[in-house]
Amino acid sequence: MRTAIVRDVSGLPHHGFGPRALTWWGTLSFMSLETSGFVLAAGAYLYLMTRAPKWPLNAPLPDHWPGTIVALLLLASMPLNLLLSRWAHAEEMKKVRFGLVGMCILGILPLIVRIFEFPSLNIRWDSNAYGSVMWFLLGLHTAHLITDVGDTLVLTALMFTRHGYAGRRFSDVSDNCFYWDFVVLAWLPIYALLYWVPRLT
Amino acid sequence: MTKCASEIRDTALDDGALSARLAHIWGTPKTFWGFMTTVDHKEIGRRYIVTALFFLLLGGLAAVVMRLQLGSPDNKLVGPDLYNQLFTMHGSTMMFLFAVPIMETIAVYLVPLMIGTRNVAFPRLNAFSYWVYLFGGLMLWAAFFVNTGPDAGWFSYVPLAGPQYGIGKRSDFWAQMITYTELSGLAVAVEIIVTVFKMRAPGMTLDRIPLFVWAALVTAFMILFAMPAVMVSSTMLILDRLVGTHFFNWAEGGDSLLWQHLFWFFGHPEVYFIFIPATGIVSAIIPAFTRRRMFGYVALVLSLIGTGFLAFGLWVHHMFVTGLPRLGESFFTASSMAVAIPSGIQIFCWIATLWDGKLRLRTPLLFVFGFIVNFVIGGLSGVMVASVPIDTQVHDTYFVVAHFHYVLIGGAVFPLLGGIYYWFPKFYGRMLNERLGRWNFWLAMIGFNLAFFPMHILGLMGMPRRVYTYPAEMGWGGLNLLSTVGASIFVLSFLVLVLNIIRSLRSGEIAGDNPWDAGTLEWAATSPPEPQNFSRIPVVTDREPLWQNPETLPVIGGMHADRREILVSTLVEATPEVLESSPQATIWPFIAAMVTSVTLLASIFTPWAIVWGALPVGIALTGWFWPGGEKEDES
Which of A33, B111, B166, B461 has the most C-beta neighbours closer than 10 Å? Predict the structure, then answer.
């Protein structure tokens, strides 16, 4: 088929941030499907709760402190995450590197606390359905935490190489910040389900 | 913005030189290494389709054995244990390894061509999804061949599939196959969404998107929100079986109905993952063979979206006999009947288009007619079983088997076959033979109806599903024999298709770019398309761009001609906003899929596999993302 050029796009940029980047939409899509998984797992928790004669089922209340500390640590990471996203938009390499190292530390700290969180549920996964669903929800969030911290570590290493100067890497950093917001915000309802709903019933 | 001194733009080259240059940059070498590393959506799409058809063959053979077994009373061809495995393998294969993947991956092949771009949004993820899907399907069938095929039905109800009753590793293989196929299905859904949202040719506003692409988009969204349900439930099942959790164990506070809720929250939308793309195929075929623009475009788009939403409100109608509250049953009866409204709107729009058009009665359109007839029959029996009293009577009988085969084969396989005849020339550059096509259609139509219509009557006579045989005194022998004869004719129709494909690949009539004189953009590409699809990205000003501009395609200029580059555009108006690089071929998705698959397979035997497997999976993913220094990585 013959063609006729009717428009020139040579002036367009080679990378974009936020909704102008494909990876941002990919991240949003993955966040949506993971939210769906979290909601269904939470639904399973509530379903089993309505079926149980009492909740927690034949177990002491979970100790909320490790979970609370994780929540506080995650919330405390938000300001740096926000700043890092801004620095990435401005493509300020030194600040981006600093921010990424900071986010690695702020990501690893809650993972260390998480090690103590599982025993503090005060029930094993194989004791009864209540224990199973508690471990399931906590495991699901831990998997997300590990994945994003792993991703942040790789990205941090990348930004200390020559590859980091490519414009699209700054866009990757900002998308990584976007995903971290999700990991933090996803924890809050799960935290409420795990530690405070049993105290209400 | 990054500028390179040596960059070459397409405006500096004439059409021939640009095409040759881009074909080299985007091409897949015809070597083993090229095969393993390609990220071309057409290569992967074709591979996906061939693999899905291979699984169709396997699932079909399982059905043939079942039909032979049921063809006469008291038959001893297969015993009850093998029969249980056969119907489970048949259902699981057809749903998870054939129907959903083939519908998704026809979109993988066609969507970029239809919206005027060069690849899908995340090509490496696409390659990864294929390998994971392949390994998952092979694993399931390998297990079957060593007598470890799942045997608790395609929906794997607990407690039958749970640790108390599900012997050996059979149900574990089923549950893990779900992980593989859902992983790949979700990956493709993400690609399709981002591709349609952000990579449409300039000017392809939301109301100019081809209906097939709308169907693919709605399906991708449904997959995004429904598939996690079956991943959550199958993970719970495998945990119950492997590490002693109690999600579905009544004795320890679990609930077997939790399985059914989670499974059908996915399982019912799954029917629409299959049906909605099929309606997209129909909406692509009808305008081309009526020479008329589709009647009621907006109504059709809204119907697709409406069906997508309603599909999430129907799952409980699979559970009417589980003793749910009456109010809940009434609600789900109403919603099950309501879904007939958008489906009805679609059918009326198609009929109106056919009514007003100049019909060209070629094979693709024949299959559309077959679809309309068969699907309406399936829809009518669907409205019947949406009613609780009728459902209670016919639940788990052959009436239900007849219903869902009419919906799935009539509603999806007939359009799919029409789609194969319609797009084959685009895929391979040659036409399928029309005479064999008509034989194919009529054998399929007669065979299918002979095979499945008698099942309605058998169901009403009380024949239950999933019985490996029945005594002669029941009086079911005649109709079962008729059904087996019909199934044989149906199989014959597929053999005609295979013969047609083989003949046409060798000596079929050369198709040319647009053999049907259709209006959508995929027909502007060469047949088969060049590796880059379009050397210059088209500009769209109409819903049927090639009908508006039959001679000269308006295009954009100014893209790089020295790298893999795609145009990112805005969500609503499709205004160009970024020139983004598209990833090069790489072996890492294959490696990542391999280590993921080995990890998942090993986890059937020990939960520690997840811990050991995390490191190689992490290494593979790092290798995948780490830049290799090409222009595509550094821009």
Answer: B111
